[in-house]
Amino acid sequence: MRINWKKSLLVTVDIVLAVYLLCAFTVFNKPDETARVCTKAKIVVADESSNGFINANEITKRLKSAGLYPLGKLMRDINAREIEEKLKKSPFVKTAQCYKTEDGEVNVSITQLLPVIRVKADNGDDYYLDDKDCIMPNSLYRVGSHAVTSRPWARPSWATTCGRTSWCRSTFCPTAA
Q1: Could you give the angle at the alpha carbon of 167 between the alpha carbons of 137 and 59, nearest 5°?
Q2: Which terminus of the chain, N or C, has less C-beta within 10 A?
Q3: pTM
Q4: Model confidence at 27: pLDDT above 70
């Protein structure tokens, strides 16, 4: 049996080239985050003008008070998941997305819950019901929703505590357990 050196050399070069390309695209292509600093923090509240419960300045203030505001921090020290989880705990936030870009930007995108009706009870309870039948606490912001008043009553028997520190009736509530 005779060895075909030309074919063996070609197969060996192909294997070495394939291993090199695999390493080039995975191992060697990792961006260096050790010295990169966040140069821009972009916060977008999708329906800020229509809902009016939170705005970009309020989000900035909350992130700064929690020590999570990314501007000026090293990119490797910014935890996008932690920022998302902090924002999702707010009773007015429906969704929160945070991601880092290669050029040193951190983008935060937020969608608010939609209040449908405001309830003002005779016993002093004052809250909103959102589109998922969850009770949202009252805030300093005002929206164009209808007010409903009632006789003195405690929290309804169906009300259970959500993870948003509000009360939820519906199984469709995004925070209901």
Answers
A1: 40
A2: N
A3: 0.59
A4: yes
